[in-house]
Amino acid sequence: MSFLSQIPVIGNEIDSLVQRSQWRDAESVLLRMLREAEHHPPASPRENTENQQAKLMLAHVLRQAGRFHDAERLDGEVLTIREREYGETAQETLVVMYNLATDIKLQTGRLLEGLALERRVLETAVQAYWPNTKAVVTADHSPSMDILIRMCNLADTFFAHNQPTDAAQLHETVLRLCTASIGPGHPYTIAVMDSTGRDYVSQGRLHEAVRLLQDAVEAGKVHLGEQDATTRRCIVHLAETYGRMTAEGDGKVPDGKVVAILEQAIKILEESIGVDDTDTVSLKYYLAVAYARLDGRFHDSEALQEQVLHWCRRQLGVRTETASLMVRNLVLMYRQLGRMDKAREVENEFGRIRRSQSD
User: Fold this and answer.
1) How far apart are CA 41 and CA 39, in angstroms?
2) Which domains are assigned to the chain?
3) Model confidence over 45-63: pLDDT tens digits?
4) What distance in Å separates the CA atoms of residue 89 and residue 72, rounded to the nearest whole number?
5) Integer CA distances (angstroms), 354 to 233, 247, 303, 335, 349, in order
6) Distance of CA 292 to CAs 57, 329, 331, Å?
7) pTM to 2 decimals?
8) Which of 17-31, 88-102, 247-261 has the highest mean pLDDT?
9) Considering Cα of 70, then 72, then 75, then 76, what sign does the dihedral take?
10) Where does the signal sequence lie (predicted)?
């Protein structure tokens, strides 16, 4: 683990109270210590450090008790001291700043503020472990790997909160360093490659996403095997990107590789999450579009279209927003194919269903 995993150590009864999660008792002892310190200013650097440790431990206790605002105040006080004594990039400072970021992001309405501070800490830590961008040999449980895992988790959080640009920038850093240190065939490197590709998709950078996801799929097949969970996940994400490009394209006929990946991904999802999951149905819609543009596959397309329509009929009132979006996509596809009667038929049918549900 890295220095960011450090929990303050006092060296007396408080440590055992914290280990037993006796937060109230630990808080009482720490408050008494800090009150005594107020009346006896530190006479040496050691006493000053001990006072800081007591505040950091109290902040840790308050954080565990869900009192994030109080923890923020204490961590902020120590951070101000350490920035002055050690500088902004010292590990002694960064560990406090990291805790402060946690205090902030766990408060209502302050998530992005906390994530931004956490990003600042991790990007500074990366510079410490990878000076001059030189690769460091990294074991799976080494301090430097811990930093990369934390950065990747932060990127995932940005992605989950609709911040794909921040996510992509962080994932790109992790991918570059993982490739240089643990190698392009390591499971973690392949997983990060996949995540970065998804960031690109969310940014609309579909061609870049396809190139990266293709690399992830190939690396997964070679180094992990086609049945590995990471490889299968990469295949699904590549298929989703192919499908989106096919559906949003200008009517270009998809090649056999695109169709094969879509078919394979649907089988993976049917086996793993079921035929009725939204992701499975979305891929069936994409495959229906692809089939419709291929000579001799229109019957296959119609069969998938009916499966998607059947799902939409059952989901209105349950997953109304998703089902309505799927219906709109199908109507658009029918119009692009020149099937205006079918487009009107579907629009009218689902219009009646929605009106009957609202009555």
Assistant:
1) 6
2) 1-130 (1.25.40.10), 140-252 (1.25.40.10)
3) 666 788 899 999 999 999 9
4) 20
5) 35, 25, 24, 22, 9
6) 64, 14, 14
7) 0.87
8) 88-102
9) negative
10) none
